[in-house]
Description:
The structure holds two protein chains of two kinds.
Chain A lengths: L1 H27 L4 H29 L6 H5 L1 H9 L18 H29 L2 H14 L1 H10 L3 H16 L8 H4 L10 H7 L7 E4 L3 E4 H13 L1 H9 L2 H28 L5 H25 L1
Antiparallel strand pairs in A: 1-2
Helix pairs in contact in A: 2-4, 2-14, 5-13, 6-13, 7-8, 10-11, 10-14, 12-13
Chain B lengths: L1 H25 L1 H18 L9 H12 L5 H9 L8 H20 L9 E10 L2 E9 L5 E11 L2 E9 L2 E2 H15 L2 H19 L1
Antiparallel strand pairs in B: 1-2, 2-3, 3-4, 4-5
Helix pairs in contact in B: 2-3, 4-5, 4-6, 5-7
Amino acid sequence: MRRSVLLMFFFIFTICVCKASVRAESSTIPEGQSDETTQEVKTPIINKANEDGELKHTVSTGQSDNTIQENTSPANTTYEDEEPVNYDVEEEPPLVKDPLQSYNRAIFTFNDKAYHYFIKPIYTGYNSMVPEKARVSVRNFFSNVKMPVRFFNCLFQGEFKGAGTELARFVINSTVGVAGFFDPAKSKFHLKKQERDFGQTLAKHKMNSGVYIVWPFLGPSTVRDTIGLAGDAALNPLSWVSYFFLTLPEGFGNYAYDTVNEVSLDKGQTYESITKPAIDPYIALQDAYVQNRIKKIKESELCLKK
Amino acid sequence: MNFRKITSALCIGILSLAFISPLLWAGEPGKLLMETIDKGFAILKEPSLKGDEKVQERRQKLWEEVSPIFNFEEMSKRALGLHWKSRTPEGKKEFVELFTSIIKDAYIGKTDTYSGEKVVIISEKQDKKYATVQTKIITNKGTEVSVDYNMHNNPGKWTIYDVTIEGVSLVNNYRSQFNNILIKSSYKELIQKIKAKQSKEETPTK
């Protein structure tokens, strides 16, 4: 009898250890990204739990389909309350204020036309002449030059580890990576680029996004992100080089080339995949922009907590 | 003694079942998702279905394989938000059909340019009937796109009710569009707009 009890305890113990190790493993696998992502999922859940509860219930009782069964079960409704998805459309505060909508829509239409009739023909021509590998290298080069933008924003956001990563990346890529045309820091040393911008820095220091603005050629932005753009431009060595050593057309050409190269790689595709299937492309782009910004700001905040 | 042995063995059996079973369930939504993705990739890689002239056939096959994992009714419900409950059953059915075709048109065409992209699972979080599977698409240019699938356990089957690409939730994106239209005009007009969009979409592809 005693032996079997001992055996039982041993069994339970091993299973517990097994479970713990599995859990630990599943949270460590993705190179430090899982921590931020799992937390990320949790944060909105708690915030929205209260606002949603009531309204969601009304939605679920209003159904006449088979889904009604799942929603009425008590175990489920308690969880559903925690779901980050909002049902309350009228009550839901819009993600961004848009009092300038009529102006914004006009600029959006202009940008859309400019993209389809001006920028897209340019980059499709460019694509047919320059192979993709070369374009990736050009992007790497520009991105390496713009390292101070990311480095200083990491510092401004208090992420000293991220700043260190950027510094190491710059040293490796400028030397081993042949003046930044290749990215051995990522492929060999697994140092990921820290996408940090001044808009995030401002958001981190509790600045609100302000109203939504669409700029000609630059696209969707907010008041905060516009200041962010200016801040990034000031941190960007390319703009200093243009200011001191290049004439205005040269500086502009420099910027335009970077942009076209960027658009030719994937930004063009991203833009089309957002606006093409949309019922209202203007709103679709606005919503995508704002949701994406929120994610990026959250990412930088979670990096800090780690 | 024999009786005691049997009871203790039973106890161990039950306890171990209770402890092990969550481990067995844990990977289910992610596994289902990856299986579906693999099936989709298999079709895209199929040599007999390659080429421009086989676009329609390939899309159709892919749709048959991949669509069962999506819960279009739940997606439509969430996309329409509060306006869903004021619809008649027929209205709901019509809307689900329309919304399904929007999603289909939007994403099935994306697969035509498939060029060896890979999908890896980053993490999987499950809580009773809901699960979030975080994945990453790695393109051959080396860019990584994070794609999260929100899944829901309908009796016995995990289905996707939302897809979040780089923080942009598909359902939320459509909800803000629908909401914006519904604030200014009626539901009828929304349906008209969707239908107009659909017919515009259909003419160039055929």
